[in-house]
């Protein structure tokens, strides 16, 4: 249990709760949920510029990272087709992967196929079910993809000024504006209460909020004096109580709750808002292909990690389809912007390619 780990090392409740957010981030879990301690470990793995467990912003926004990878690939002769949806994996006479078919009917032939899509899309939508073992299909269908995350992107005309650390007169970003700001995290019990409400089908009345202002570090993201604020919030159930859908009214009601909370910490925040973009779990699934809206392509619980990710006997990036590999967050070691699953899958694919 994460709570036991934090209680052993720390006394301050606000500090324990703030650290606990990294144990439940993206997970429909409470700090009191068994196994939550692993998710905290996962989020402090690795290092950044020699600093262990550190995180960083990508200059130009997260898309700049994808562009950097794309440029490295094209420099080595890769051809990239963006905005081209894959309809299904092309199979040979013996059931091996031979390429992909795009929605416009174009066939792209290849000796190997690596899928960065979720296991659910890869194996339940892009591959004929009769080509897969029944127990494998059942396992993929049973993966826990519940997600508590609603992401809200906000444009503001001035920097938020927090009661705990008011802005300087010149309105320039202060050190705390350049960090991750955790709100509604005064105690782990608050997080547990927010989780409990969501398990009953209700968006948290006092949601956990991670507030980042990337434009405080990267001014090119917003016009002078203005900023973009990224709100990573939970808990919001994918399916609301009573079968209610996440319609415009429900989405705005939850966003208003989040903004009211921020207003308590930083009066004037709501008046500074120019626009907002609300992405609930169903939105994250529809737009980005995240199953259930889960940012990790599936829960990072102990029963869905290591040799069971995405399924027992298939944690080594290979799949029941010869020549088809899984290289995204649904593969070992799971989600997060680290590239480990892709690198590992590429090494396996290269080794197999030499024998073709």
TrEMBL record:
<protein>
    <recommendedName>
        <fullName>Pyridine nucleotide-disulfide oxidoreductase domain-containing protein 2</fullName>
    </recommendedName>
</protein>
<keyword id="KW-0285">Flavoprotein</keyword>
<dbReference type="GO" id="GO:0016491">
    <property type="term" value="F:oxidoreductase activity"/>
</dbReference>
<dbReference type="Pfam" id="PF01593">
    <property type="entry name" value="Amino_oxidase"/>
</dbReference>
<feature type="domain" description="Amine oxidase">
    <location>
        <begin position="34"/>
        <end position="177"/>
    </location>
</feature>
<comment type="similarity">
    <text>Belongs to the carotenoid/retinoid oxidoreductase family.</text>
</comment>
<dbReference type="InterPro" id="IPR002937">
    <property type="entry name" value="Amino_oxidase"/>
</dbReference>
<comment type="function">
    <text>Probable oxidoreductase that may play a role as regulator of mitochondrial function.</text>
</comment>
<comment type="subunit">
    <text>Interacts with COX5B; this interaction may contribute to localize PYROXD2 to the inner face of the inner mitochondrial membrane.</text>
</comment>
<dbReference type="GO" id="GO:0005759">
    <property type="term" value="C:mitochondrial matrix"/>
</dbReference>
<dbReference type="InterPro" id="IPR036188">
    <property type="entry name" value="FAD/NAD-bd_sf"/>
</dbReference>
<keyword id="KW-0274">FAD</keyword>
